[in-house]
Specification:
Bound molecules: guanosine-5'-diphosphate
Amino acid sequence: MAVPTIAVVGRPNVGKSTLFNRLAGKPLAIVDDRPGVTRDRREARGRLGDIPLRIIDTAGFDDADATRLGTDMRAQTDAALREADVCLFVIDAREGITALDQAFGDVIRRSGKPVILIANKAEGRAGVDGITESYALGFGEPVAISASHGEGMGDLHARLTQELGDFDRLDDDREDEPPLRIAVIGRPNAGKSTLINALIGEDRLITGPEAGVTRDAIAVDWLWDGQRVRLHDTAGLRKKGKVNDRLERMSAADTLRAIKFAEVVLLLVDAEHPFEKQDLTLADLVLREGRALVMVLAKWDLVPNRQAALKELQYEFERLLPQAKGAPLVPVSALKNKGLEDIMPAVTRLHRDWSAKIKTRDLNDWLQEMVSRHPPPAVQGKRIKPRYLSQTKSRPPTFVLMCSRAADLPESYKRYLINGIREAFDMPGVPIRLIVKGGK
Ligand code: GDP
Ligand code: GDP
């Protein structure tokens, strides 16, 4: 398992959301407590020490005075349990065990999932009686924590390590890694400000002005789905005002600046009018600048027959932009808060491939095969001989081909090699540069 999934379950008011927020890291953009936001949003990436986590919350039911396990609660809990590798069953140590806790205990037991019993609100010496009582639930020794004060997280870490099988631990120096730089571009009205607002939320989540690459290009840092990101702040994002005033209309110069700033560019297209000339021009510009391109199909709620539409759009995209073959297409509705959680996984996957370094030996084994399968055409009776291929840099991956009669190597052959590299070394959607040099 790469990233373990945990479900946070239990009756209302025991502190599930508080625990969720703590594990998700900072007050996350996507864990917002404005009405209608948290309610739909029950999943986030986070970490506990070196354990990466996908966390599913079940705080969607809004009935703090509920005394019985209603159908809604039941359905949500079951759904969360189904996806979980480990269940965190939260009780309120100060209140002790209630009938509703018992009812939840039964549901959880029936799921057959590994369970860690969490006795919350146990800061200081509080909740000792509740902790003792909780053994009666039959899940063994509880982990006493305080979600709001952050106590007991070391014990929780130890228990999670026990319960989880294999997973990829996070590097501890990750905090020092520079954040991933992202820009959001698109033609006017594509839905950029609505998306950014849905992601970042209100001003409280903006951690303060950070000096950007230039005087007028400023960045906003935040934690997005467990990943530190620096978002190019297209002029005005931080200004107070109505949602629609936030992001000033981007000029061509702004757009270029945003692209140059970014490692990964989110290009928003209006899914109702996708891939218009300007969209294609922008996509091409992103790739020519060597940036990783994620296509976001905005306003997806307005599209009928979504499944068929997505297939059609994928096909259209590859036809219109063969140079972007394999770039991810992510349908979202910022207005309905749907699909936003799919953006970051696409971004990190692409960013990883965009940063890849390929061994020279592997490249040359591959080159030999490609050339013997399909040699370059002869020019005036003389063969062009590709001799040696190496990667000179990444971000974007840049290769140098040493070749006799370099000037005569046709563009189509370069494309053959570029597409081949992308396919053989599994870097779909990554812009690749190939420089051809003469020499023996
Ligand atoms: P949920 O309904 O289970 O998601 O519970 P919430 O996370 O919304 O918390 C319910 C209440 O308990 C809130 O008022 C929290 O501030 C409070 N709470 C959560 N965790 C703790 C804790 O560790 N200690 C104390 N004293 N209060 C907590
Ligand atoms: P920008 O110019 O690219 O920043 O676009 P805006 O974010 O200002 O959005 C342009 C228009 O599209 C506004 O009227 C938004 O309300 C609308 N819009 C944005 N996102 C969505 C969405 O997900 N669904 C729908 N139906 N409309 C949206």
